[in-house]
# Entry
Amino acid sequence: MERTREEIEKEILKFFDEHSTKRADPSDPNGGIKPGTPCALGTSRDNIPRVTPIDFYNDGLTLWMTGDPGEKIATIRANPNVSIGIYTKIDHSKENRSIMLKGKASLVTYREQKDLYMDVITKIGILGMLKKAIRSGAIGKRSDLGITSGEDFETQMDKMMDIITMIKVEPEIITLRISPLGGAAEGAGERLVWEKEG
# Structure
């Protein structure tokens, strides 16, 4: 049975909503976020591939991730083409679903796109998590971040937001693979493909 674009998008959104990291109740001990299923973020620089396991947050079909200064951010700056895999442990006693996504990544920083940055970290719960970590003293114990416990709350927040870069991934192609109960022995399953229009 051929599915419509709207039906495919609905299935993909359902998968993202079930597996993405989410904003949690502020009283949650995880500090404002509810962990989801991590994704595998594939990047490439100078024809050398790199895969990073990382939490993701979805805003519709757009995925967001956080990044500290390092190889992942430098690689995306050099080549914004990315691949993402999202899957759970394969269990042949039930239907299995996985996502393969190809898209373009862009970097959103506090200094360069403050309004968008603050909107995103507030919406997905990172701002609350940072505030909780600073108030608890956990951030002040991380000398590797260039933050000392004697600094005031605003200074620590400002430094943390300078460190964290938001990675925005806009999909070009998303494939949702649905494997039937019993795995390949029971049939090929279904591949639902969504492609960016235009």
Summary: The mean pLDDT is 88. The radius of gyration is 19 Å. The longest strand covers residues 165-179. Residues 5-195 form a domain with the Pnp Oxidase; Chain A fold (CATH 2.30.110.10).
